[in-house]
Protein backbone atom coordinates (compact mmCIF):
# COMPACT_ATOMS: atom_id res chain seq x y z
CA UNK A 1 0.00 0.00 0.00
CA UNK A 2 3.01 2.24 0.33
CA UNK A 3 4.13 4.72 -2.30
CA UNK A 4 4.90 8.34 -2.94
CA UNK A 5 2.64 11.13 -1.78
CA UNK A 6 0.58 12.22 -4.78
CA UNK A 7 -0.30 15.92 -5.08
CA UNK A 8 -3.62 14.92 -6.66
CA UNK A 9 -4.46 12.94 -3.53
CA UNK A 10 -3.53 15.92 -1.33
CA UNK A 11 -5.87 18.06 -3.43
CA UNK A 12 -8.66 15.52 -2.88
CA UNK A 13 -8.04 15.68 0.88
CA UNK A 14 -8.23 19.49 0.73
CA UNK A 15 -11.49 19.36 -1.25
CA UNK A 16 -13.01 16.80 1.16
CA UNK A 17 -12.05 18.69 4.33
CA UNK A 18 -13.02 22.01 2.73
CA UNK A 19 -16.44 20.58 1.89
CA UNK A 20 -16.80 19.29 5.46
CA UNK A 21 -15.95 22.78 6.74
CA UNK A 22 -18.98 24.18 4.88
CA UNK A 23 -21.46 21.82 6.59
CA UNK A 24 -22.46 24.17 9.45
CA UNK A 25 -23.91 26.49 6.78
CA UNK A 26 -25.91 23.67 5.18
CA UNK A 27 -27.28 21.38 7.91
CA UNK A 28 -29.19 21.71 11.19
CA UNK A 29 -27.57 21.79 14.64
CA UNK A 30 -28.94 18.30 15.34
CA UNK A 31 -27.33 16.88 12.19
CA UNK A 32 -24.12 18.70 13.08
CA UNK A 33 -24.03 16.92 16.46
CA UNK A 34 -24.37 13.59 14.64
CA UNK A 35 -21.40 14.60 12.49
CA UNK A 36 -19.40 15.34 15.67
CA UNK A 37 -19.97 11.77 16.90
CA UNK A 38 -19.08 10.49 13.42
CA UNK A 39 -15.81 12.45 13.49
CA UNK A 40 -14.83 10.96 16.85
CA UNK A 41 -15.81 7.45 15.75
CA UNK A 42 -13.65 7.99 12.64
CA UNK A 43 -10.69 8.83 14.91
CA UNK A 44 -11.27 5.67 16.99
CA UNK A 45 -11.69 3.51 13.86
CA UNK A 46 -8.50 4.92 12.28
CA UNK A 47 -6.54 4.30 15.47
CA UNK A 48 -7.79 0.66 15.56
CA UNK A 49 -6.96 0.30 11.88
CA UNK A 50 -3.30 1.35 12.30
CA UNK A 51 -2.57 -1.81 14.29
CA UNK A 52 -5.30 -4.29 13.46
CA UNK A 53 -6.14 -3.29 9.88
CA UNK A 54 -2.52 -3.10 8.79
CA UNK A 55 -0.83 -5.94 10.65
CA UNK A 56 -3.78 -8.32 10.98
CA UNK A 57 -3.49 -8.41 14.81
CA UNK A 58 -7.17 -8.02 15.66
CA UNK A 59 -7.53 -6.10 18.94
CA UNK A 60 -10.69 -6.35 21.06
CA UNK A 61 -9.26 -4.04 23.71
CA UNK A 62 -9.45 -0.66 21.98
CA UNK A 63 -11.82 0.92 24.53
CA UNK A 64 -9.07 0.13 27.08
CA UNK A 65 -6.81 2.65 25.31
CA UNK A 66 -9.56 5.21 24.72
CA UNK A 67 -10.52 4.84 28.40
CA UNK A 68 -7.00 5.54 29.66
CA UNK A 69 -6.87 8.78 27.65
CA UNK A 70 -10.36 9.84 28.71
CA UNK A 71 -10.01 9.00 32.40
CA UNK A 72 -6.52 10.50 32.73
CA UNK A 73 -7.51 13.95 31.47
CA UNK A 74 -10.89 13.83 33.27
CA UNK A 75 -9.28 13.01 36.64
CA UNK A 76 -6.43 15.52 36.23
CA UNK A 77 -8.63 18.41 35.11
CA UNK A 78 -11.69 17.72 37.29
CA UNK A 79 -10.12 16.39 40.50
CA UNK A 80 -6.78 18.25 40.52
CA UNK A 81 -7.59 21.41 38.50
CA UNK A 82 -4.80 20.69 36.01
CA UNK A 83 -5.24 22.95 32.93
CA UNK A 84 -6.68 21.08 29.94
CA UNK A 85 -3.70 22.20 27.85
CA UNK A 86 -1.54 20.10 30.18
CA UNK A 87 -3.94 17.25 31.03
CA UNK A 88 -4.63 16.23 27.40
CA UNK A 89 -0.93 15.78 26.39
CA UNK A 90 -0.36 13.91 29.68
CA UNK A 91 -3.36 11.69 28.89
CA UNK A 92 -1.92 10.83 25.45
CA UNK A 93 1.51 10.02 26.91
CA UNK A 94 -0.11 7.90 29.65
CA UNK A 95 -2.18 6.01 27.05
CA UNK A 96 0.92 5.19 24.98
CA UNK A 97 2.97 4.19 28.04
CA UNK A 98 0.29 2.15 29.85
CA UNK A 99 -0.92 0.60 26.62
CA UNK A 100 2.61 -0.46 25.66
CA UNK A 101 3.22 -1.87 29.13
CA UNK A 102 0.10 -4.05 28.94
CA UNK A 103 -0.04 -4.91 25.25
CA UNK A 104 3.66 -5.54 24.48
CA UNK A 105 3.50 -9.08 25.94
CA UNK A 106 0.29 -9.66 23.91
CA UNK A 107 2.11 -8.80 20.66
CA UNK A 108 4.12 -12.01 21.09
CA UNK A 109 1.01 -14.12 20.54
CA UNK A 110 -1.06 -14.27 17.37
CA UNK A 111 -4.59 -14.70 16.08
CA UNK A 112 -7.31 -15.64 18.54
CA UNK A 113 -4.96 -15.51 21.54
CA UNK A 114 -4.04 -11.88 20.84
CA UNK A 115 -7.73 -10.95 20.46
CA UNK A 116 -8.63 -12.67 23.74
CA UNK A 117 -5.76 -11.07 25.67
CA UNK A 118 -6.77 -7.60 24.46
CA UNK A 119 -10.43 -8.28 25.34
CA UNK A 120 -9.32 -9.32 28.83
CA UNK A 121 -7.52 -5.97 29.28
CA UNK A 122 -10.68 -4.08 28.35
CA UNK A 123 -12.73 -6.06 30.87
CA UNK A 124 -10.01 -5.60 33.51
CA UNK A 125 -10.03 -1.83 32.98
CA UNK A 126 -13.84 -1.81 33.28
CA UNK A 127 -13.69 -3.57 36.66
CA UNK A 128 -10.72 -1.57 37.99
CA UNK A 129 -12.18 1.90 37.41
CA UNK A 130 -15.22 0.89 39.45
CA UNK A 131 -13.42 -0.52 42.50
CA UNK A 132 -9.99 1.15 42.72
CA UNK A 133 -10.12 4.69 44.08
CA UNK A 134 -13.77 5.46 43.23
CA UNK A 135 -13.14 8.84 44.85
CA UNK A 136 -11.00 9.60 41.78
CA UNK A 137 -12.73 7.64 39.02
CA UNK A 138 -16.29 8.16 40.22
CA UNK A 139 -16.81 4.39 40.47
CA UNK A 140 -19.81 3.02 38.58
CA UNK A 141 -21.28 6.50 38.12
CA UNK A 142 -18.19 7.93 36.47
CA UNK A 143 -17.40 11.65 36.45
CA UNK A 144 -19.71 14.44 35.35
CA UNK A 145 -19.02 18.16 35.16
CA UNK A 146 -15.75 17.71 33.25
CA UNK A 147 -14.61 20.94 31.59
CA UNK A 148 -15.75 21.25 27.97
CA UNK A 149 -13.47 22.85 25.38
CA UNK A 150 -16.17 24.39 23.20
CA UNK A 151 -19.71 25.71 23.43
CA UNK A 152 -22.36 25.03 20.83
CA UNK A 153 -22.62 22.52 18.01
CA UNK A 154 -20.72 24.62 15.44
CA UNK A 155 -17.59 25.09 17.59
CA UNK A 156 -17.69 21.45 18.71
CA UNK A 157 -17.98 20.36 15.09
CA UNK A 158 -15.01 22.44 13.91
CA UNK A 159 -12.82 21.16 16.75
CA UNK A 160 -13.70 17.53 15.94
CA UNK A 161 -13.18 18.17 12.20
CA UNK A 162 -9.72 19.73 12.68
CA UNK A 163 -8.78 16.85 14.96
CA UNK A 164 -10.05 14.16 12.58
CA UNK A 165 -8.60 15.87 9.48
CA UNK A 166 -5.15 16.32 11.03
CA UNK A 167 -5.03 12.69 12.23
CA UNK A 168 -6.35 11.32 8.92
CA UNK A 169 -3.88 13.20 6.71
CA UNK A 170 -0.97 12.44 9.09
CA UNK A 171 -1.76 8.69 9.15
CA UNK A 172 -2.31 8.65 5.39
CA UNK A 173 1.09 10.31 4.80
CA UNK A 174 2.75 7.91 7.28
CA UNK A 175 1.30 4.89 5.48
CA UNK A 176 2.84 6.15 2.21
CA UNK A 177 6.32 5.70 3.70
CA UNK A 178 8.39 2.51 3.76
CA UNK A 179 7.22 1.99 7.33
CA UNK A 180 3.61 1.88 6.15
CA UNK A 181 4.51 -0.60 3.42
CA UNK A 182 6.27 -2.84 5.95
CA UNK A 183 3.26 -2.77 8.30
CA UNK A 184 0.91 -3.78 5.48
CA UNK A 185 3.33 -6.56 4.52
CA UNK A 186 3.12 -7.98 8.07
CA UNK A 187 -0.63 -8.40 7.60
CA UNK A 188 -0.02 -10.32 4.36
CA UNK A 189 2.91 -12.52 5.41
CA UNK A 190 4.76 -11.84 8.67
CA UNK A 191 7.28 -14.66 8.10
CA UNK A 192 8.28 -13.17 4.73
CA UNK A 193 8.88 -9.77 6.36
CA UNK A 194 11.09 -11.44 9.00
CA UNK A 195 12.90 -13.23 6.17
CA UNK A 196 13.84 -9.83 4.73
CA UNK A 197 15.67 -9.05 7.97
CA UNK A 198 13.11 -6.63 9.40
CA UNK A 199 12.27 -6.70 13.10
CA UNK A 200 8.52 -7.37 13.07
CA UNK A 201 8.21 -6.92 16.86
CA UNK A 202 9.54 -3.36 16.59
CA UNK A 203 7.28 -2.66 13.61
CA UNK A 204 4.22 -3.96 15.47
CA UNK A 205 5.19 -1.97 18.55
CA UNK A 206 5.49 1.17 16.43
CA UNK A 207 2.05 0.54 14.89
CA UNK A 208 0.60 -0.07 18.33
CA UNK A 209 2.12 3.09 19.82
CA UNK A 210 0.80 5.21 16.94
CA UNK A 211 -2.65 3.59 17.29
CA UNK A 212 -2.55 4.06 21.08
CA UNK A 213 -1.51 7.71 20.70
CA UNK A 214 -4.41 8.41 18.33
CA UNK A 215 -6.84 6.54 20.63
CA UNK A 216 -5.55 8.61 23.57
CA UNK A 217 -6.05 11.88 21.65
CA UNK A 218 -9.55 10.81 20.59
CA UNK A 219 -10.52 9.66 24.10
CA UNK A 220 -9.18 12.82 25.76
CA UNK A 221 -10.93 15.26 23.41
CA UNK A 222 -14.11 13.14 23.41
CA UNK A 223 -14.52 13.36 27.19
CA UNK A 224 -13.99 17.13 27.02
CA UNK A 225 -16.70 17.30 24.36
CA UNK A 226 -19.21 15.23 26.37
CA UNK A 227 -18.32 16.80 29.72
CA UNK A 228 -18.71 13.45 31.45
CA UNK A 229 -17.41 9.89 31.48
CA UNK A 230 -19.04 6.63 32.59
CA UNK A 231 -17.46 3.15 32.55
CA UNK A 232 -20.68 1.45 31.41
CA UNK A 233 -20.77 3.50 28.17
CA UNK A 234 -17.03 3.50 27.49
CA UNK A 235 -16.33 -0.20 28.03
CA UNK A 236 -19.55 -1.35 26.40
CA UNK A 237 -19.29 -4.22 23.91
CA UNK A 238 -21.46 -2.24 21.46
CA UNK A 239 -18.90 0.59 21.50
CA UNK A 240 -16.10 -1.87 20.72
CA UNK A 241 -18.25 -3.55 18.05
CA UNK A 242 -19.00 -0.18 16.40
CA UNK A 243 -15.31 0.77 16.18
CA UNK A 244 -14.30 -2.54 14.60
CA UNK A 245 -17.28 -2.72 12.23
CA UNK A 246 -16.66 0.89 11.11
CA UNK A 247 -13.08 0.01 10.15
CA UNK A 248 -14.01 -3.28 8.45
CA UNK A 249 -17.04 -2.25 6.41
CA UNK A 250 -15.36 1.03 5.45
CA UNK A 251 -12.26 -0.78 4.25
CA UNK A 252 -9.47 -1.82 6.60
CA UNK A 253 -5.88 -0.61 6.09
CA UNK A 254 -6.94 2.36 3.94
CA UNK A 255 -7.39 5.29 6.42
CA UNK A 256 -10.20 6.63 4.20
CA UNK A 257 -12.19 3.40 4.66
CA UNK A 258 -12.54 3.59 8.48
CA UNK A 259 -13.67 7.21 8.08
CA UNK A 260 -16.33 6.22 5.53
CA UNK A 261 -17.44 3.32 7.76
CA UNK A 262 -17.68 5.63 10.78
CA UNK A 263 -19.93 8.10 8.96
CA UNK A 264 -22.07 5.31 7.50
CA UNK A 265 -22.60 3.60 10.88
CA UNK A 266 -23.18 6.78 12.89
CA UNK A 267 -25.92 8.01 10.58
CA UNK A 268 -27.40 4.53 10.20
CA UNK A 269 -27.70 4.19 13.99
CA UNK A 270 -29.10 7.70 14.27
CA UNK A 271 -31.80 7.10 11.65
CA UNK A 272 -32.71 3.75 13.25
CA UNK A 273 -33.09 5.38 16.69
CA UNK A 274 -36.71 6.61 16.24
CA UNK A 275 -37.77 3.19 14.90
CA UNK A 276 -35.74 1.04 17.31
CA UNK A 277 -34.81 3.11 20.40
CA UNK A 278 -33.20 0.17 22.23
CA UNK A 279 -30.25 -2.10 21.55
CA UNK A 280 -32.23 -3.84 18.77
CA UNK A 281 -30.86 -1.38 16.24
CA UNK A 282 -27.40 -2.87 16.76
CA UNK A 283 -28.73 -6.15 15.34
CA UNK A 284 -30.03 -4.28 12.28
CA UNK A 285 -26.75 -2.49 11.61
CA UNK A 286 -24.85 -5.69 12.38
CA UNK A 287 -26.90 -7.45 9.71
CA UNK A 288 -26.33 -4.65 7.19
CA UNK A 289 -22.62 -4.65 8.00
CA UNK A 290 -22.45 -8.44 7.54
CA UNK A 291 -24.20 -8.33 4.15
CA UNK A 292 -21.97 -5.48 2.97
CA UNK A 293 -18.86 -7.27 4.20
CA UNK A 294 -19.89 -10.50 2.45
CA UNK A 295 -20.64 -8.59 -0.76
CA UNK A 296 -17.34 -6.71 -0.70
CA UNK A 297 -14.80 -7.80 1.98
CA UNK A 298 -12.66 -4.75 1.20
CA UNK A 299 -15.53 -2.48 2.22
CA UNK A 300 -17.13 0.76 1.10
CA UNK A 301 -13.74 2.13 -0.01
CA UNK A 302 -13.40 -0.63 -2.62
CA UNK A 303 -17.02 -0.19 -3.81
CA UNK A 304 -16.37 3.53 -4.41
CA UNK A 305 -12.96 2.84 -6.01
CA UNK A 306 -14.43 0.32 -8.46
CA UNK A 307 -17.30 2.69 -9.31
CA UNK A 308 -14.74 5.45 -9.94
CA UNK A 309 -12.73 3.21 -12.30
CA UNK A 310 -15.88 2.22 -14.18
CA UNK A 311 -16.94 5.85 -14.60
CA UNK A 312 -13.43 6.89 -15.65
CA UNK A 313 -13.28 3.96 -18.08
CA UNK A 314 -16.65 4.78 -19.67
CA UNK A 315 -15.65 8.47 -19.93
CA UNK A 316 -12.44 7.51 -21.77
CA UNK A 317 -14.44 5.18 -24.03
CA UNK A 318 -16.81 8.02 -24.97
CA UNK A 319 -13.92 10.33 -25.79
CA UNK A 320 -12.13 7.61 -27.79
CA UNK A 321 -14.85 5.60 -29.58
Entry summary:
By secondary structure, the chain is mostly helical. The protein is about 75% helix and about 0% strand.
Can you put this structure into words, describing what you see?
The protein is mainly alpha-helical and 321 residues long. It has a domain at 7-20 and 28-237. 77% of the residues lie in helices and 1% in strands. The protein has a two-stranded antiparallel ribbon. 42% of the residues are buried.
Question: Which key terms come to mind for this protein?
Answer:
single chain, 321 residues, mainly alpha, two-stranded antiparallel ribbon, 16 helices
Please specify the SSE layout and strand pairing:
Layout: H1 7-21, H2 23-26, H3 29-55, H4 62-79, H5 84-103, H6 111-131, H7 134-137, E1 143-144, H8 153-175, H9 178-188, H10 190-195, H11 200-226, E2 228-229, H12 231-234, H13 237-250, H14 256-272, H15 280-295, H16 299-319
Antiparallel strand pairs: 1-2
Amino acid sequence: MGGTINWRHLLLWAVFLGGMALLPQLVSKGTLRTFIFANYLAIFAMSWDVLSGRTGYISFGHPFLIGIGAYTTAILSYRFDVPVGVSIPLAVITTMAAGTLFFLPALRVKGTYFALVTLAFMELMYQLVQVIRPDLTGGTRGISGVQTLTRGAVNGYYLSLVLMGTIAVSLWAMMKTRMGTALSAIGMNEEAVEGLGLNTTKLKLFAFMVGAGVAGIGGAFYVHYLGSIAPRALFDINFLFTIIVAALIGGASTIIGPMAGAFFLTFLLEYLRPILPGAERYFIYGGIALVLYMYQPKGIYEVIRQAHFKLAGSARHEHNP
